[in-house]
Amino acid sequence: MSDLKEIFVNTQHCTGCLSCKLACAVQHSKNKDLFSALSQDPKPKSRLYVEWLWGNTKVPVLCRHCEDAPCVNACISGAITRAENNAVITNTDKCIGCWTCVMVCPYGVIGRDKDLKIAYRCDRCPDQDHPACVDACPTEALTYATVDKFSAEKRQAASREVAQGQGG
Amino acid sequence: MSLRNQFEEKTKDPAVQKMLGIASEQEIETVWDRYENMLPQCGFGETGLCCRHCLQGPCRINPFEEGQETGICGATADVMVARGLDRAIAAGTAAHSGHAKHLAHTLLKMATGEAKDYKITDAVKLNKVANRLGIAVDNREEKEIALDVARAALADFNEKETPVLWAAGVVTPGRVKVLSDLGLVPKGIDHEVSEIMHRTLYGVDADPVNLLLGGLRCGVADLAGCYMGTDLADILFGTPTPLASEANLGTLKPDHVNIALHGHNPVLSEIIVKVAQDMKDEAAKAGAAGINIVGICCTGNELMERHGIPSCTHSVSQEMALLTGAVDAMIVDYQCIMPSIASVAECMGSKIITTMDICKISGADHIAVKEETAAENAKQAISSAISIFQTRKNRNCRIPDITNKVIAGFSTESIIAALSKLDAQDPLKPLVDNIKAGNIRGVCLFAGCNNVKIPQDTNYIQMAERLLKENVLVLATGCGAGSLMRHDFLDPSKTKERCGEGLFAVLNAIGEANGLGGPLPPVLHLGSCVDNSRAVEITVALANYLGVDIDQLPVVASAPEATSEKAISIGCYAVAAGLPTHVGVMIPVTGSALVTSVLTEKVKELTGGYFIVDPDPQSAADKLISAIDERRKGLGL
Amino acid sequence: MGRKYVIVGGSAAGMAAAHTIRKKDRNGNITVLSNEKAQPYFRPMIPYIINGKKRPDDIFLSGSGIFTQGGISVKTGFGAKSIDFQKKTVTTASGEAFLYDKILFSSGSTPYLPENIEGLDSEGVFSLKTLSDAQGMAKRSETATHVVMLGGGILNLKAAFALLEKKLSVTMVVYSPEVLSQLMDPKDAFPIRNALDNAGLNIITGISATQVLTDSSGVCGVALDNGSQIACQMVCVGKGVVPDTGFLNGNDIKIDKGIFSDPYTQTSIKDAYTAGDVAVAIDPVTGEKTVTSLWTHAVEMGICAGLNMTGSKTVYTGTLGIMNATQVADVPLVSMGIVHTKNSEYETHAKKTRLTYRKIVFSKDGTRLIGALFIGDIKNAGIYRYVIREKKNINGIKSHLINHTVHYGHFMQP
Ligand SMILES: Cc1cc2nc3c(=O)[nH]c(=O)nc-3n(C[C@H](O)[C@H](O)[C@H](O)COP(=O)(O)OP(=O)(O)OC[C@H]3O[C@@H](n4cnc5c(N)ncnc54)[C@H](O)[C@@H]3O)c2cc1C
Ligand code: SF4
Asked: What ipTM did this prediction achieve?
């Protein structure tokens, strides 16, 4: 477990520039560059969100790839599996767009692709050393590290997970 | 990866590569380091989708997000992008015309006797300009004419009854009609800039096409600024004629007091060159072999085209001049002066001297230069350089032993003079005949800057190599010329190997007829960035000669490594003038499909010109060549 | 010798339990008895068998999601017939006997077939429950041109769309005033109803069928209680499901609608557990017993039962009685918790647009979120479910819930 990396969030560093969102959409586009992604139809989607809290805290939110992931249990088509890099991923060929995962994800990070009628979410960029959002973040609000390393360095409240609801 | 290779990814100039090695060894931060630290750059900025035009903002439109198609005020992506572009055009226009206005004031003060250090150097040019403006010249004192010209120039900045004369009076009659039909004739240069600021304000113009037309009109005002800048500088300091010079960092001399003049306007640099002649003794007393003046950026071009003063480097590599340790003072006026030079200078024990009220840099010395006291101010600056030399003189400088031979100084006047050696009666005829015969396939103007995003000079080198081989006559200005001169494109001994046969034959014939004993250089240096007006003047002359409009000529333009907003405004007037205009850097408009398509396609139906945005030099060259061929075909060639 | 686990019913609950047991107990013998012929599959996917978008191969459980373990013996075609709790033996319909140390009843549910409709046993009458039902429907729909759906529940809607896609004309006869009455008040269903109408589904409400009419080729029509008849070649009954407890008849095991389960998924008899559609669970919102038909619940209760059977005592915290997500006629829909508010005193808030509807329901005193219905726009449904299910304190976020501006950040520890 400990050598598997996760994306950690430090809300205090987030300036709300949304660079992560752009980079994510671009990484999930056909040619993986901003300018051709702009003309792709349907447009590629970004899989993370930057929310805002009163007092001007900006909160990047993305799939936590929960250890006991409710979405994996919930999926009625077998589309959601755990990949080798420990990411919980949605197989786009199998997904039928029943939205059960959207209903059970306590983080609200599974998106609904209205064009393709399937769900999309963070896949931690399996083809890359670092997820695109982490590379794009200019302030290190997003970092990619092993759990141990991150805990040792600084454990931020923001990255602690919402206590998970077990069961239906 | 070898160290050498690592620098090749940053610059193609071997002198600069050498200096980068020194910078990294001494841990001195350069523009390339700062660029790397800046990565990744914000995609909203890259696409033009961020707006800070009001205090409700900042807004940015995420092009990949549904339901977030406008800014808070309701501005669409198209509006945001068009407004942003307009402001860039206005900034570029303000800069070129600010430069021209500075010259106009100098001319005025010269004429009224307030600025004694200046004089009329080219009376022929004065008369030519006065004639064009409808100012009487016969039986009048030069200074009287100059006064009227200066007043006419200053009047062109305001909104007034007549259109901007430096725009409406300098293009073909056909172009005047096209521009006035489209409402693109500027009413006053400053007026256009300020109108852009007005219409791009919170809650004003929200029609992207209307905004773009406004931007184009401001671009035409930029042409006026540039043209005026060239005219007035030629009157005051002389119209360039071809002369030999040198370029690159090897032009710095360890045993001399080295003064680098950086920026744009000849108003100050001309005086420094003059005063330096008189201060040789002082330099000698300080132990120097002499005073060595070199130029950087467009100041370099202005001095080179008129006096053959060498250019030591350009644009993105300006810090390198300081890194040699040999520059005692870098005297700057305005535009393209990276603030970072102050800290590099501090590291190297040299001095930056700022001279203009609107351009001070913390960490630099400031000498407030006035036209009235120019020589005195120049003296002070040079003395300062000499005293730095005294502290520096025994220290090792690290000057790369690289210089490139240059022939510069091709004004419209000097080109026509050269051509008249072939046909005194009809000097344009040989040029036109060669175009018709295909020896000259077309003409391409390279302008603009270097850009840290592109390995320095790559695009210039690759595109010029390609176009010359295809017999395209290449003209260059500004740091584009700077780039090409540092790679021997302005060296006549390279003309044969660089150019296609037809082009070589033409350049050789002109050279021989002018007693040069060989060809003209492969690329003709037209001067600084305001001197893009010279390219317009030549093009207009050709069009008038043929009785066609500019948009029919096989003439194209390219800013392959553009950086400054000035490059955007120049691009706009090139497009308004009817030229296919290449830009090799992504301009922040791709966030709007509409704006992008207007600039790259639809505008063609209006002005005949259009933008070609292509970062790949080879395919850009292909596109320019096919644009040239399309126009040749249109002319039945 | 490893422990012997026997699981009756190899679907969501049974297979989730089997795979969980295998993870926890590497030596145990796990035998799953299934009276279906096919190997375990994702049951909710069978509508895609009707319209041919999926083949059976595409929907088998093995290897997907949590169903990745090996070493599980699945005996298809083996229906449990009787249980001897003393001897700890299961006997199948074909006479085999299996000894067990721990047994799980996960036999699911079967379609409810109303007695007051005659002829439901005719050829061409279906009730979509199994893969073979789906295959039968696919076959019949090759020749049929018109089908009548009895019941407007979600299963029947899915079946109806599968048939519409096969270009059959489809009439849905609904006794309730509106479709999907289990998942929402009739007046809330407008965006769905519009979409269904636009999609070409012919819906008649407030009517019920009395008889299925037949001729030599099976079904030829349906008679309705208003005296009219509809000609058709196929009928599909979707009137809900009931727990499948038949094989336990005569045993002394507590059954109240479904099989009783203690908080640890154990039945009233030691070493016998239950999970899924067949089991009774607690609804954490109402605190009441509930039997449901939800895949997610079946999987999670199955996992919980698996843990308990291997000795890891784990509480099953129950399921919302209503917790459905789906997409019908391109309209996404989520219904969770208490959503029927007509004539109730709950505090409800609704946000309507032309194509979307979002209603959220608070307790009478307004201090707890107890239900949510999202149609057309299901954004952040999971966050609402989390708040409902975990009975979260909504101080400070209530307005965000009402305005649909709630997000994960609101739950961060400061
Ligand atoms: C068409 C359709 C679509 C659905 N869509 C959804 C949906 O979108 N979302 C959702 O949450 N739920 C959906 N459901 C409901 C979901 O499939 C069930 O809730 C879930 O399958 C219940 O799982 P289970 O393991 O408890 O029982 P079941 O899946 O009912 O499985 C029980 C198994 O046990 C077998 N069995 C019964 N008795 C015996 C016996 N005596 N011996 C051996 N085997 C026996 C049965 O044949 C069956 O194979 C849908 C159901 C259907 C039919
Ligand atoms: S002008 Fe409009 S788009 Fe720009 S910052 Fe203000 S509200 Fe936002």
From this structure: 0.93
